[in-house]
Amino acid sequence: MQLVNKTLQTTAGNLAIDEWMLDSCDVSTTPRELFRVWENPVPAVILGRSSKFADEVNAAWCQQNGIEILRRCSGGASVVIGPGCLMYAVVLDYRLHPQLRMLDEAHRFVMKRIQSAVLQTGIDVQYLGTCDLTIKNRKFSGNSMRCKRNCLLYHGTLLYSFPLHLMGKSLATPPRQPEYRAGRSHEAFVCNLPVTPAALMKELIKVWNPPFVESEATMTSNDLVEIQNLVDNKYATAAWTEKL
Q1: Residuewise pLDDT in 10s, the chain (244 residues)
Q2: Residue 99: how many other CB atoms lie within 10 Å
Q3: How far is it, in rounded angstroms, from Cα 38 to Cα 118?
Q4: Residues 45, 99: Cα–Cα separation, whole Å
Q5: Pick from 74, 157, 159, 233: CA 20 to 30 A from residue 200's CA?
């Protein structure tokens, strides 16, 4: 596994990198796996691939307050990201891990490692629902995946110093909720990790250490062109963001 050490200054660009990671691994003739940790420079609402724009987002409030709304390539419900929310993405190859074609196993494989990384910072963390990490029944990490022929992309959020009120303002009540949420509002349901981003990033990278993380991936000029094409033709377009 290689580390992708790249963060762009636009939300669309950062979403595009995650999809580029999946695509580049999936078309590789030999197994290839990538891991990335990043933080978006500005607050933004990120719709899930099948999220309904009108049902999950308070678009008028977001527009009035300069909050971007974009759509990612993976499933799950809408989230709010930005400074104070660390993001990770990992691409895993079925040719190395055939058991991950079973979705429950894929969730467990990744979430147990992310949970382990947070535990190493000294925080007692629980894994609840399909793919949530929590502290005392409050969620600080939501995750989702996208599967292709040879690989899967698994990525998610880790709140550490995020202005939680933005969630209640930006998002509507989600149409699907885990049972443990018990009808709580966004602000009552989520929390920040009491940890520095440097400590968290260190443990996240360490948990994918050899035989996982082997080196840093080199991005070529062609790779950057492919990422920009994803931005121009998908992530920065209303046709993609407002498709549902």
Answers
A1: 899 999 999 999 999 999 999 999 999 999 999 999 999 999 999 999 999 999 999 999 999 999 999 999 999 999 999 999 999 999 999 999 999 999 999 999 999 999 999 999 999 999 999 999 999 999 999 999 999 999 999 999 999 999 999 999 999 988 888 999 999 999 999 999 999 999 999 999 999 875 566 678 889 999 999 999 999 999 999 999 999 8
A2: 10
A3: 16
A4: 33
A5: 74
Tokens of 188: 């009552």
Q: How many CB atoms lie within 10 A of CB 3?
A: 17
Taken as a whole, the chain contains a residue count of 244
Task: Determine the residue type at 57.
Answer: V
CA 8 to chain centre: 15
Closest CA to 122 of 219, 175, 194, 31: 194
